[in-house]
Design a protein that fits this description.
heterodimer; A: 144 residues; alpha+beta; Heat Shock Protein 90; 5-stranded antiparallel sheet; 5 strands; B: 116 residues; alpha/beta; Transcription Regulator spoIIAA; 34% helix; Anti-sigma_ant (chain B)
């Protein structure tokens, strides 16, 4: 098994870097080429969610991302926001997306979760084991 | 790739050609341009996504925001997209039921009616 860790300040500009690293490690781990667009999107959504939570709560803690390739490609994205915020993710029903009552922020969160759930078959959102925060764990098969 | 934005008029439509990556970092620039178009009086906006390499939830949120602003004004926001990875994003989020989607700018601005 090999592991790559990345930690970055919670700023939108760094999310692209996280996506690029995540896809590069996925390719090296043996994730099928046709899945890489989905890996890129899902990592981007998980990191965007973490950055937005840190900004919402005024946290300067680094967002952490860990990639490992033990029989599968596993990406964990960890934020340090209060758990109730992180676990408040819910998928929105399709007809709610264009409704007026939904704030732009809630809409973007709902769409982001729909994308995560739609593109990642093996997805878990759970509290971190130590300290405050939430972990988004995504797993993809590797072909080797 | 950085975000690129270019606007042109086709008949009564404002066509906004978007290229590159639309994400949490670049989406505010897209929102700003769409708001400028609406504030400037555009009521039919066609957003051409065929040169977009990456689109995430923040970008989708911006497009829905433009749709929401235009609707009470009697306007519309149509999208041009024929790239399967992007179309899949619209299907998964069910936003293909919110936006008119066309394969080309010509189809989106066809005066004889929708040809999607």
């Amino acid at each position: 098994m090999s592991t790559v860790r990345l930690a970055f300040s919670p700023a939108p500009v760094h999310v692209r870097t996280a996506r690029l690293v995540g896809v590069a490690v996925a390719r090296r781990a043996g994730v099928a080429e046709e899945l890489l667009d989905e890996v890129r999107l899902a990592i981007g959504e998980a990191c965007t969610r973490a950055v937005e939570l840190h900004r919402q709560y005024g946290l300067s803690d680094l967002v952490q991302m860990e990639m490992s390739d033990d029989h599968s490609y596993t990406v964990r994205v960890i934020d340090r926001a209060p758990i109730e915020a992180g676990l408040g993710l819910t998928a929105l029903p399709p007809d709610a997306l264009a409704n007026e009552w939904l704030t732009d922020e809630a809409l973007t969160v709902g769409v982001g979760f729909a994308l995560l759930a739609g593109f990642v078959d093996d997805l878990q959102v759970r509290p971190v084991e130590v300290g405050i925060g939430t972990e988004v764990r995504m797993v993809w098969p590797v072909g080797k | 790739m950085e975000l690129s934005l270019a606007t042109r008029a086709v008949a009564e439509h404002a066509v906004l050609e978007v290229g590159g990556e639309v994400d949490v970092y670049t989406a505010p620039r897209l929102r700003e341009r769409l708001n400028e178009l609406i504030d400037g009086g555009a009521r039919s906006i066609v957003v051409d996504l065929n040169r977009v390499d990456f689109l995430d939830s923040t970008g989708l949120g911006v497009l829905v925001g433009a749709h929401r602003r235009l609707r009470p004004l009697g306007g519309r926001c149509a999208l041009v997209c024929d790239k399967e990875p992007l179309l899949k994003i619209f299907r998964i989020t069910a936003l293909d039921q919110v936006f008119p989607l066309y394969p080309s700018v010509e189809a989106a601005t066809d005066p004889s009616g929708p040809t999607a």
